[in-house]
Design brief:
The chain is of the alpha/beta class. The chain has 11 helices and 10 strands. It has helices at 56-66, 84-91, 109-117, 137-144, 162-171, 193-204, 215-218, 226-238, 261-265, 268-271, 275-290; strands spanning 2-3, 9-10, 28-32, 70-74, 97-101, 120-126, 152-156, 176-178, 208-211, 243-244. The strands form 2 sheets. It has an 8-stranded parallel sheet, with helices on both faces. Helix 3 links the parallel strand 5 and strand 6 (120-126). The radius of gyration is 18 Å and the shape is globular. 43% of the residues are buried.
């Protein structure tokens, strides 16, 4: 575990490799975050972890190093419902970033409109008890019904609560994007019970998307994450128009086994094995969600 001079957690690789895989033109890192900088954007008093600063300059330098052109910045739980850091990063991106917010369910229409103007295109509902204290499904559904046109809901949960999540997911009135595939046990393989349950969810609605992300979180076998590649490739192939990808930089709470971001990028051709699949995963699909006005 590494920390800065103030004892704040450093969860990212200090010198990521240059990936062997070259992303296609227009590629989007569709799941990443910014932390602070704290002096400008303090962390939430309810934060379950206190990270070192990982601001937009660092994020955009990594984007360029890895060969991507755009980012989707997802509000990190350490910032709570104050989306200022995410909005600041989007504003500094020269149009090359959009975002996903975390909001108080009581947010006003005017505040939602301001988030849209700032580049937000979705809201995230987090059901990981170690990260959030309260996840009120009824209030989440109410705000989901008031989102600006074209927005979606991102949900983050673990596989063991998928059954109890089903009624809530069914009731969400806009498209749904599932973070990290609901964290299935990839060691079970592509036909394991948790991956089968996730496929059942995908079959239940044509507008449920997923992120084929985080081998570092899901594959205990470690880099090069062979179990992840084996389990996830068929999912990408079977639902190729509903899948996006991202680095998850700066890897919240990954202060041990911090992944090399270049190696994460080199997972892409192992789960999306053709040029056509790679373009869908990295360009076509995220653009449909986050930059539809360019189509």
């Amino acid at each position: 575990m590494s920390a800065d001079s103030e004892g704040r957690i450093i969860s990212w690789h200090g010198n990521p490799s240059k990936p062997a895989f070259t992303p296609p033109p227009g590629a989007v890192d569709a799941h990443c975050h910014v932390f602070g900088p704290q002096a400008s954007f303090p962390f939430s008093p309810k934060a379950k972890y206190l990270p070192a600063d990982a601001g937009p300059d660092m994020l955009f330098a990594l984007r360029d190093h890895l060969g991507f052109e755009r980012n989707v910045i997802v509000q990190a739980s350490c910032h709570g419902t104050d989306n200022s850091a995410t909005l600041d990063a989007i504003a500094r991106s020269n149009g090359r970033a959009r975002g996903v917010a975390v909001v108080d369910p009581a947010i006003s229409e005017a505040e939602l409109a301001a988030l849209h103007e700032g580049g937000i295109r979705g809201v995230r509902f987090n059901f990981l008890k170690r990260l959030v204290d309260n996840a009120p499904k009824d209030k989440f559904l109410e705000v989901a019904g008031r989102l600006p046109a074209g927005w979606h809901v991102v949900i983050y949960f673990e596989a063991d609560i998928l059954d109890e999540m089903r009624a809530f997911i069914d009731a969400i009135p806009v498209p749904v994007v599932v973070d990290h595939m609901g964290r299935p046990d990839v060691s079970q393989g592509p036909d394991g019970p948790e991956m089968k349950a996730f496929r059942t969810l995908l079959e239940s609605r044509p507008d449920i998307w997923f992120k084929a992300t985080c081998p570092d979180r899901l594959d205990a076998s470690g880099d090069p994450w062979n179990d992840f590649a084996t389990a996830v490739r068929p999912l990408v192939e079977d639902y190729q128009d509903r899948v996006i990808w991202g680095t998850d930089w700066p890897h919240p709470n990954m202060q041990s086994n911090i992944p090399d971001d270049g190696h994460l990028v080199d997972m892409i051709p192992r789960i999306a094995v053709t040029g056509d699949l790679q373009r869908k995963l990295l360009v076509d699909n995220p653009v449909r969600l986050y930059w539809p006005e360019t189509l």
